[in-house]
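User: What would this chain look like folded?
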Amino acid sequence: MFTDKNSFLKDSPLSYSAFCLAIAAAISYSAFLQFLFPTLFDPDSYYHMAVSGFIRDYGLRYSFHWAQFTVFKDFFADKDFLFHVTIIPFSIFIKDTVLAGKCAVIFYNVIFIFIYAFILKRYLPAFLAGLFLLLPLLSFTFTCFFIQLRPFLLCNIFAVLGIYCLINKKYRQLFILSLLYPLTHISFFMLIVYALICEGIRYLLTKEVYFKSLCAVVIGTLLGCFLHPNFPNNLLIFHLNSVLVPLYTLQGIDLTFGSEFISKTTKIALFDNFAVFLALNIVLWLGLLKKTKASLATCVWLACASLYLVLSFLSNRYWYPANTIFFIFLAAYVNDWISAKKGQDVLPGISAILRLSISFTLIFIHLNI
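Assistant: Here's the prediction, encoded as C-alpha cells.
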C-alpha cells in the first residue's frame, strides 16, 4: 500500500483516504449500534427526552411538580439545560420519541467523532490518526455511554476541546466553552481543574503561566452559572451532586444511584476497558524502544487522563472520559516518539503496535455488540 518504509507518516492522498474511511466507519458503527434495539439505551435517555419536551412546551422556567418528595419540588434546576435545548429540534421534526432520541444521539456522536478526529490529526499523520480514531469504540464502557442519550456526550466534547484550547493558549475559545459548560452539566468545574493542571505543568516545564487562560475559564464559569435560567437553584443542585455525592461515596455510603457510581473489579475493568490498557502497553513498548522527552501536550493529556483513571477506581462513570483523554495522550506521545526518531526507520515499532492492536481487536470487538 505504501511505496517506502515511512510513507504512511506522510499526509498523502492515500493516507487522507484512509483517514476519511475511518471517520465514515466510526459514524456508521455508532449508527449501527443505535438501531440494534427498538428502544433507547438506558432509562435516563427517556428522562432527557421528556425534559426537553417540557422546555419546548412550557418555556425555560416551569414547575417540576412531578418530584414531590425531592428538592426539585421547590428548588428545581435543570442541570442539563443546554443539552436538553439542543435536542428539542429532533422532537419537533420527528414525532416518534424513540426515533428522535436515537437521531439526537447520532448527531452528538458525529460531532464528537469530527472533533476527536481533528485533535488526533493535530498530533498524528492522517493514516495513524484514522487508526487511533477507532480505539475508543473498542472499549465496552466507552461504547455503552456513547450510545446513550445523556449529557455525557456533550461534556466529553467540552472536555477534550477545553484541554486542547488550554494547551494551545486559545483563551477566547476557552471563555466560550467555560460559559456554556455550566449550562450543560454539573461537572463544569472540571474546566477549572484542567486549567490548573495545564498551567501547573506549563510552569514546571517552561517557568511560564498563561494567566489569560485561567482568567477566561474562571470568569466564563462564573458567568455561565449566573446566566443559567434556574439560578440560583442550579448552585444547590451542584452542591448536592458534585459535592455531597462524592463525599458520601468516599465515606463508603451506598447511595444506590446505580452501578455507574460504584467501582468494578479489576477483571471486569480490564475486559470493559481493554483498549485503555492496550494503549498503556503501547506507551511502555515505545518507551522501551527509545527514550523520548514528553512535550507539554503529552504531559497535560496524561495528567488529565490519570485524574479520571484514579477516579474510575471509585466510580465506573469516569471510565468514559478516561478512555477518550488517554487515547489523545497516546497520540501526543506517539507524535513525540516519531519526532525523536528524526527520520529514522519507525516502521518496526509501528508494525508491532498494529499487530498488537489488530490481535486484541479481533478478540474483543464482539463484546461491544
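The chain has 18 helices and no strands. If you want, I can go into more detail on any region.
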